[in-house]
Design brief:
about 0% strand, globular, 13 helices, about 300 residues, 2 strands, mainly alpha
Amino acid sequence: MFRKEYAGRFLSACFGLFVIFLTIGIGAFLIYKGSATFTQFHHTIREFLGSAVWDPADNSKGGGKVGALIFIVGSLSTCGLALLISTPFSIASAIFLTEINAKIGEKLFRPVVEIFAGIPSVVYGWVGLTVLIPWIKSIFHLQVGASIFTASLVLAVMIFPTITSVSADAIRAVPDAYKDGAYGLGATRWQAIYSVIVPSAFSGIVSGVILGLARAFGEALAVAMVIGQTNALPTGIFSRTKTLTTEITAQMGNAMEGGELKSALWTMALLLFLVSLLFITLIHIVTRKKKEKED
């Protein structure tokens, strides 16, 4: 009995340490590959983050321009708009799942949400390409339907299951005593929801929103199919542009190994890794604040 217990602890510790070292290894590898833009080709961080001129040389001598501002702005605008579209629907769905009609929510609505989470991104992109782009082009009388708005709609549907599931779990974790106290003071169901339940689950809901944003930032294929793929700073929601992930996906396979272009792409991958770490840190901060308030 004791041998099995210690063996289980040992295996759990080994797997946990493996994940930790794997994450550190990925980070170290990205730092090594991505830093070549600054150490080998002598570009500055200010140029990389603040310039919109993207013309890196596909050779080992360098001499090109590596301004990634177009892709940074494209990622921020696309993911931000997707979050604005998806978050209200996700929170409302989570409330329906847990507080409005839990039986129907668990038997019908939650399985549908989980199915959405399991659909491959290429399917979302294909539907956006064949259905959404012509529809937006017709409705808004545009020359081209591919745009930030189209990509944001696709991303909004893709991150909807993540935000909904995490938010529903957070609302479900609110102690029944909080709800009973609200009803005991004469609150209606809706008053209890927006005055007690949602504020109590706020940190979990924020964590779900951050996870959805991280999911949106990392998406490449579906966005590449509907965003228009143009090297230009967006001027509105119907502009065509590129994101960090779409540029990496389009160029990484054809770039020369050790060249300036590939190094710049590795730097963009490093930037995405740092953004992911930022999201994880924000989740831990929000969760820690909740625990401190409860204590």
